[in-house]
């Protein structure tokens, strides 16, 4: 119980919020890193998944990539990249490792979502004379949007979690508070950092929950 | 005076046979620790998950809280999870095992519950009509039929645990992660690559092993697909 009190004291000490090592700056680093990586991963994965899903090709690739992604430890990839020439560009290894881990769930969900669109609807759209591009953008994409968004949500939460591991390899972000706490043998700081990271991850999960509800309500209203 | 050896260790190459030869015992110890941590956490996760899933299936009101709590646990990043458990267990293997077991719990509860829910109502009614009690129904009809879904969850949980153990290096119990962590600090390329590859090999081997167990345990599934 004493740890809880100490953690609270650590968190409410204004000195721990200010400066380059402060919570404010670490939170900002974490947010920027997560957002940039999510954007890059979406730009890479979604177009590929939507086109493959539309054509109905590459399913095995999309699904297996996801399984391989789970078997490869993020931490190992991060350290491997750090020891290659990429390691010289500051946040480079972190961004590459994070994008590598966010792409599989995005790809798999978007692909599966596209394939699960009712084939009758697709045939009807083709019968109405829609081009492939029109079908993709106006029929298949809107119908598969819940699955696509589900993938973005998984990727976002995974990114927040994985960005924490970057701190083990000397990167920035909230994980740094935890690793610094370990080095100082300060349990209150370690727990405070963990609480912050967990709260951040849960907040991201919560935001996506709200976005998905709104999206499905809109889709439901259109019917 | 002897000249320093000019081998791949001295040149710090990624792939190095001399490393494998000289550090065989270190690697073996790390692999053993890795396997122990994964096995312990998945077994504990399974022991907790089965009753929870059965409870959620039997009592409608229990389903939402059980799924909610396990999902929230899964959202907590691994480094944070290990750190949050620090005041409870200190720097110990128990800490890593508990953290990983909590992650496995989410995947296992979800899959076992999905499997139990997928048991056809007619099957349950038929068993009840034959005079099966609730426990016999659960043990001889529902759980076996839920096995394929449960095994799918078990495979995902095991593979994820194998990769997440590495983060345990932060408290000194990370199996192969310890070697990666140490290799990072000393720029020891061969050690980082070897340990990483071993991690992936363990994950793949565990997955194949569980797939084989699943096929042996559910002979009816094979008969149907033939």
TrEMBL record, chain A:
Signal peptide: none annotated. Residues 27-208 form the ABC transmembrane type-1 domain. The chain crosses the membrane at residues 31-56, 68-89, 95-114, 160-178, 190-208. Keywords: Membrane, Transmembrane, Transmembrane helix, Transport. It is found in: Cell membrane; Membrane. The keyword Transmembrane applies. It is a multi-pass membrane protein. CDD domains: TM_PBP2. It holds the Pfam family BPD_transp_1. The keyword Transmembrane applies. InterPro entries: ABC_transp_perm/SBD, MetI-like, MetI-like_sf. It comes from the Bacteria. PROSITE patterns: ABC_TM1. Gene3D superfamilies: MetI-like (1.10.3720.10). Belongs to the binding-protein-dependent transport system permease family. This is ABC transporter permease. It comes from Streptomyces cynarae.
From TrEMBL, chain B:
Pfam families: BPD_transp_1. Residues 31-210 form the ABC transmembrane type-1 domain. The keyword Ribonucleoprotein does not apply. Gene3D superfamilies: MetI-like. The keyword Membrane applies. Keywords: Membrane, Transmembrane, Transmembrane helix, Transport. It is a multi-pass membrane protein. It is found in: Cell membrane; Membrane. Belongs to the binding-protein-dependent transport system permease family. This is ABC transporter permease. It comes from Streptomyces cynarae. The lineage of its organism: Bacteria, Bacillati, Actinomycetota, Actinomycetes, Kitasatosporales.
């Amino acid at each position: 119980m004493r740890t809880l009190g100490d953690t609270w004291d650590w968190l409410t000490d204004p000195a721990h919020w200010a400066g380059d090592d402060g919570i404010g700056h670490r939170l900002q680093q974490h947010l920027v890193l997560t957002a940039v990586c999510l954007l890059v991963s979406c730009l890479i994965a979604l177009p590929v998944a939507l086109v493959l899903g539309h054509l109905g090709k590459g399913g095995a690739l999309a699904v297996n990539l996801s399984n391989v992604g789970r078997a490869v430890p993020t931490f190992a990839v991060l350290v491997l990249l750090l020891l290659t020439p990429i390691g010289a560009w500051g946040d480079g290894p972190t961004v590459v490792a994070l994008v590598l881990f966010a792409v599989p769930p995005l790809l798999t969900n978007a692909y599966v979502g596209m394939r699960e669109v009712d084939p009758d609807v697709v045939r009807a759209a083709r019968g109405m004379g829609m081009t492939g591009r029109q079908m993709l953008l106006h029929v298949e994409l809107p119908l598969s949007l819940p699955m696509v968004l589900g993938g973005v949500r998984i990727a976002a939460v995974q990114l927040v979690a994985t960005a924490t591991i970057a701190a083990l390899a000397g990167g920035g972000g909230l994980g740094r508070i935890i690793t610094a706490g370990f080095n100082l043998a300060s349990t209150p700081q370690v727990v405070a950092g963990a609480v912050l990271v967990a709260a951040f991850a849960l907040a991201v999960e919560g935001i996506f929950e709200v976005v998905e509800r709104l999206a499905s309500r809109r889709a439901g209203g259109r019917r | 005076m002897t000249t320093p050896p000019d081998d791949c260790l001295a040149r710090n190459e990624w792939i190095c046979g001399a490393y494998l030869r000289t550090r065989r015992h270190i690697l073996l110890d790390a692999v053993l620790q890795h396997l122990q941590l994964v096995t312990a956490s998945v077994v504990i996760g399974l022991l907790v998950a089965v009753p929870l899933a059965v409870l959620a299936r039997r009592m409608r009101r229990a389903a939402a809280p059980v799924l909610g709590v396990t999902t929230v646990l899964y959202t907590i990043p691994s480094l944070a999870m290990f750190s949050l458990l620090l005041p409870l267990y200190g720097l110990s293997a128990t800490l890593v095992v508990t953290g990983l077991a909590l992650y496995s719990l989410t995947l296992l509860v979800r899959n076992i519950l999905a499997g139990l829910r997928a048991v056809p109502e007619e099957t349950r009614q038929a068993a009840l009509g034959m005079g099966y009690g609730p426990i016999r129904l659960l043990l001889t009809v529902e759980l076996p039929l839920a096995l394929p879904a449960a095994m799918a969850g078990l495979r995902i949980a095991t593979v994820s645990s194998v990769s997440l153990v590495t983060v345990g290096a932060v408290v000194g119990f990370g199996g192969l992660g310890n070697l990666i962590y140490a290799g990072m600090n000393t720029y020891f390329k061969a050690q980082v690559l070897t340990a990483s590859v071993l991690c992936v090999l363990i994950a793949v081997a565990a997955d194949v092993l569980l797939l084989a167990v699943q096929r042996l345990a559910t002979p009816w599934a094979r008969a149907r697909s033939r």
